């Protein structure tokens, strides 16, 4: 790859990682990670995801773990093709707040990465604004008959 002028774009790296994860699965020695890959090639953005067993897909937005269950519906509702960077950050912060409220042991700090053809910029860590005084947080099983 160094001397022949070829380079790997995000799609090629995504396909390679899919094969690596699937191969490890078949050897009954999976890498217990879910990978998110993002890149830009020829003006086309490329977000992709690979699970620990080699399941992969590409979409306009990807998520892992609880994000697949809780954040993807928010992203489906609020994402559109011409979303600005600032609006995208707001939607992402909304998703992260939902995930934070679901898992109180998580920390409320995050960093935002922006991937362009010129390169990658990563923000400084910052904290999400949270509000823990909702009545439902004080007694979450109120009104749930038969709960533990």
Automatic annotation (TrEMBL):
Top-level taxonomic group: Eukaryota
Pfam family, one: Proteasome
GO cellular component, one term: proteasome core complex
Keywords: Proteasome
InterPro entries, per database record: Ntn_hydrolases_N, Proteasome_alpha, Proteasome_sua/b
A biological process term (GO) from this entry: proteolysis involved in protein catabolic process
Protein name: Proteasome subunit beta
Organism whose genome encodes this protein: Brassica campestris (Field mustard)
